[in-house]
Design goal:
By secondary structure, this protein is mainly β. Helix content is 6%, strand content 34%. The protein has four domains: 56 residues, no CATH class; 56 residues, no CATH class; 76 residues, no CATH class; 101 residues, Sandwich (Jelly Rolls), CATH 2.60.120.640. The longest helix has 16 residues. About 13% of the residues have low confidence.
């Protein structure tokens, strides 16, 4: 066998010139032996067309780089690190920046590219298992919460935790479908929980706090403002909105005390249903404290009816006085109170 086993090829006959110099005749036996060695050596070589393939373990001394056509290196793989600290590096430099692996079924095992990482396929339904006590996924960049896990079945529950550099944590739990469905969607645009400063909050868009429990066990709920304010939950009080001038009432004023805090006369206006669609059953409570100026309660295009008189239109609330307006239809309100005309 001409190969030594360590990469050295040795000819059976080192020099035909030496035979000629020594006057040795041409030998068919020597030629056959030499040519057979060449054939055996070539048989152990790799061919560029793939006809002769490795049938044993190959140990590469250098990085393996494969090129095709006019492209640059389209695939390279290298082992780096020390004897007890090996690592494997894959690099792709073609036009698609794509690495794929295929199972023996012919289906996808994984696909890696800058836009998405895909593992497995629906036909084989392979399982991806992380055999660790805990796994951390570090998310960097502007969209630091761009992570979603989705449950495949009606009884499969998933949970995960996200934390940014400021220490804000988000938790989401969900069932994908079925009669026992509890929570659905992704952490960014549906339901999630946040913990901050020891308090537990519930959110519907991943950032706006809508309800929560403080460290003292008190439940709080928010109003409907764009930047909501939290108030104690339950029928314990009416949140206050104090205004010292003319004021256009907004959606966030539902079930609040609208307090007139000025000695001058002003107007509070209930907007039309076309511009602010308060739910039917909405309650607005007006307070004109002692020494305050006259408060006019007006309405835009919809109907505001005084109880029990039945007259419609703007009402006058003198100090000290209180009035309550209730929405009983899409464009219909009733109002009643003390010192209200």
């Amino acid at each position: 066998m001409p190969w030594s086993g360590t990469g050295t090829y040795t000819r059976g006959y080192a020099s035909w010139t030496a035979d000629a110099t020594n006057g040795l005749p041409i030998s068919a036996t020597k030629f056959d032996t030499e040519d057979n060695d060449f054939a055996a050596g070539i048989q152990n070589c790799l061919t560029i067309d793939g006809q002769n393939k490795p049938n044993g373990t190959l140990t590469w001394a250098q990085t393996l780089a494969l090129t095709k056509g006019s492209d640059a290196t389209i695939f390279s793989i290298a082992r780096t690190g020390g004897t007890n600290n090996p690592s494997l590096t894959w690099a792709v430099a073609d036009n698609t920046d794509l690495i794929t692996a295929t199972l023996n079924t012919g289906n996808l095992a994984f696909s890696l590219n800058p836009a998405a990482y895909v593992f497995g396929n629906s036909a084989d339904q392979p399982a991806v298992t992380f055999n660790t006590q805990g796994m951390t996924i570090a998310l960097t960049g502007t969209n630091s919460y761009a992570l979603a896990l989705k449950a495949p079945g009606a009884t499969s529950q998933v949970s995960f935790e996200l934390e940014n550099s400021a220490g804000l944590q988000k938790f989401a739990f969900g069932l994908s479908q079925g009669a026992n469905q509890v929570l659905t969607g992704s952490v960014l645009n549906d339901f999630c929980m946040l913990t901050q400063g020891g308090n537990l909050w519930l959110s519907t868009n991943g950032s706006t706090i809508n309800a929560g429990m403080t460290t003292t066990g008190q439940w709080q709920i928010s109003d409907l403002a764009a930047s909501p304010t939290l108030f104690a939950a339950g029928y314990m009080n009416l949140p206050q909105n104090t205004q010292a001038g003319n004021y256009a009432i907004v959606l966030a004023d539902q079930a609040k005390q609208l307090i007139h805090s000025s000695g001058s006369a002003h107007t509070y206006t209930i907007p039309a249903n076309a511009s602010v669609a308060y739910p039917t059953g909405t309650v607005l409570h007006f307070v004109n404290p002692p020494s305050s100026g006259v408060l006019t309660i007006a309405i835009t295009s919809d109907t505001l009816t005084l109880v029990p008189a039945g007259s419609t239109g703007s009402r006058t609330l003198t100090a000290p006085g209180v009035a309550t307006a209730e929405k009983i239809g899409s464009t219909t309100w009733l109002i009643y109170g003390s010192n209200l005309t």
